[in-house]
Model the fold of this input.
Amino acid sequence: MKTGKQQQQPRLSLSEEPTIRVGLWESVPRLRLGTSAWFMANGNPCGPGTYETAADHGTITLSTEAGIVVKADEHMIIEPLRGDAITVYDMPIGRSFHWERLQEHQYRGRLLCQCTESGCLRLINEIPLEQYLESVVSSEMSPDAPFEFLRAHCIVSRSWLLAQILRKTTSDATKAHKHKQQWTDATVHRHFDVCNDDHCQRYHGIGRVNTAAQQALEATRGQVLMYGGEICDARFSKCCGGITEAFSTAWDDREVPYLQPCADCATSCSDIRMQISDEESVERFIHSNPAAYCNVTDRALLARILPDVDRETLHFFRWRLDLTQEELQEILREKTGIDFGDIINLEPLARGASGRIYRLRVHGTKADEVFGKELEIRRILSRSHLYSSAFVVKSRVERGTVPSGFTLYGAGWGHGVGMCQIGAAAMAALGYDCKDILHHYFNGTHVLQLYP
Ligand SMILES: [Zn+2]
Ligand SMILES: [Zn+2]
Done:
């Protein structure tokens, strides 16, 4: 019997493979599609060719050069007839990161075009979970990456996705606190489950799907990482920098037992276990060259691990960025909307276990503000994003009190929470298997077969 107040139930059935909704475009006035096969648009058969979809005051049109083919109110469902793919042109990827570019992507499943509140188009891809994962694993990592690493990545990506969808009913994902502390999560998306970019997981359609990813998915189909009866919110990032980070450094202030910091090395390794307790020890750590799994200097191994788009980034374990006073002022003004005047210093107020700053004071002659958490700090100090917020600052003072510039010495790439992708791939190359990798990064968890 149903009683009074009901909890909102997740829309997922977890006894069979779920279908998920991936946001490809939050808002775009028009977009170009192409296909070499017949497809249906709101039930109307359409032939092979190139089409334009546009939104205008609540009406969505699908046109060829000859004119409008299908017109609909608010929604249009585009579905290939025999499971063929549809190409979407000029898709932006790596939005506002240093690898941003336009690509042409092919999608299976259904494309949902919706009118947004502002009269633009929203584009969503509805697709079975395992097919989505094929693309994510292919987009995130190179097919030449060690197989046990790819298996681990499949379980991590699947767990993360399901955990986000399950959490969506209960969580308030975008937080803004005093001191400009903010962060966002997948639960920020109201109209779909996940977006297609680095904010959630990279999903570049089926064009990049490779057989290694397919084999790793088949080997792990339906398997998720569990902790205490719950599917793990299994996070991952490119390179922890030597020590993985706690959940609360990047997102809300709660302890997640399986997302605790760990030294990214074998248990016997000791030099990396130095405590990061004060600014001096952080500086020592960042200027050191610890024997971490993700401290990969072997170019051949890196080329096996990283997808093409990331191979342009080589110095991620330790990095350096030089900014002049003028550059920093300009970037801060552009990113925060605040005129700080001359920047006197950048002062870390709070750091996580990996050295990542989650509260940073920007002290200028005209303004003095505190920013966080890690992604916001990375955003405001760079025209794209800093590799990470694990950095120490050296200011160049030539005369007076106003520095002429700043040098940031940093460690790692990404938020550093959960699985370190480079470290995990390096572990697999050393002979560790999928379970060893998962246990190393997600302490106290086990793998469960969720659906066949
Ligand atoms: Zn997202
Ligand atoms: Zn690492």
